[in-house]
Amino acid sequence: MKLVFKNETFSFEFLRVLGSSIYGGADISECFTTAARIKDKDFESWYQEWSATAARIERLADDCLERGHGVSAREAYLRACNYYRSAEFFLHIEPDDPRAAETYAKSLRCFRQALPLLPFPGEEVRIPYEGTTLPGYFFRADASHEPRPTLIWHTGYDGTAEEIYIAHAQPFLQRGYNCLIFEGPGQGQAIRLQGLPFRPDWEKVVTPVVDYALSRSEVDPRRLALFGLSLGGYLAPRAAAYEHRLAACIAVDGLFSFSPAAAEQLEGQTEQQATERFEQLAQEPGMRWAIGQAVFTMQVTSPGDFRQKMAAYTMAGRADKITCPTLVCEAEKDHFFPGQPRKLYDALTCPKTFMRFTAAEGGEEHGHAGALALANQRIADWLDETLSHNA
């Protein structure tokens, strides 16, 4: 699927923003008029134009709030939050670009302004973790404190907790689920404000989050599920292999090993050859971003370090340790990790379901960008049926 841009990476990131319009994370005309001002494959143009749109919508939100129009303010703040997130996206190709921290802070500020105006009771939380805390949000399906089935959510390689709420959590809250959204090492505030890089042993991250969830009276301990998106399609199953208090695990999309094309093309090469190939790969916008993101979130220092760190993210020898029912989703035209969902599914020995999204139904892109209503509906129905046995 190509929209506006010929470059695959720019087109996908545009679809990612546009697709959230169904849940209020964007407005279609705002997206297309912004994209029309962006030069294809031009990172600076991308930043400038999304920032300009975000700032305009934030001013609109501020004005609505000042005049007492709470719903209008909420809607505009959520769009501005998402537009700022998109504006920041490519800035990490330059590790010292000060605009990344500034733009992220604006996105976070907009979400915090929207938080008390949301239709679901929500609060910022800090989850105890190895001498510090992890940031997150706890949302209740309604104002009661009745124990409910609860979804623990985390994103992947580049998303934020705020994007999870905007694009994914809302339809589950509408269906009566509480949602605990957190950011682990390498993600959101944890990397940007706390300097915590990714780690492959994600069970060490999720277990404290489960501890926190079970400390809350609103959480039904028999109906606690874990949802991982994108790289989270590895992280969530990895955690479920060792954390057996979960009643279900969802991988969107399933990932057996985190071995992007850049890492594969460096295999079997000397350090000098790998360095030269690394530099060649970095000329393509998508790969340049992926490498810059690895430097930022994984603290990669060299091509050899890149290979070594990527190799640690694998479900080999671990997939068969998962005991809870697990849903593995696949996007037919996933340009990041083709074939990976089937590898994960085949390695599982627990009760399992394979859910494929096709081009014919518009769900073929990574994470089913552009088909969120379809994806969330099918996944939620699976979860309803799976957790019904624990009611």
Question: In words, what does this structure look like?
Answer:
With 391 residues, this protein is α/β, with parallel strands linked by helices. The chain is 47% helix and 14% strand. It has 15 helices and 8 strands. It has helices at residues 8-19, 28-36, 43-66, 70-88, 98-114, 161-174, 188-192, 203-214, 232-240, 261-265, 271-281, 285-297, 303-311, 340-347, 372-387; strands at residues 122-129, 132-139, 148-154, 178-182, 219-229, 248-252, 326-331, 352-357. An 8-stranded mixed β-sheet has the order 1-2-4-3-5-6-7-8, sandwiched between helices. Strand 1 (122-129) and strand 2 (132-139) form a beta hairpin. Residues 170-368 form the AB hydrolase-1 domain.
Main β-sheet description: 8 strands, mixed
Q: Would you identify the CATH H-level superfamily of the largest domain?
A: Alpha/Beta hydrolase fold, catalytic domain
Shape: globular
Alpha-carbon Rg, integer: 20 Å
Q: Count the helices. How many?
A: 15
CATH architecture of the largest domain: 3-Layer(aba) Sandwich
Q: How many E-type strands? A: 8
Order of helices and strands: HHHHHEEEHEHHEHEHHHHEHEH
Low-confidence stretches: none
- Average of per-residue pLDDT values: 93
The helix-and-strand class reads alpha/beta
CATH top-level class of the largest domain:
Alpha Beta
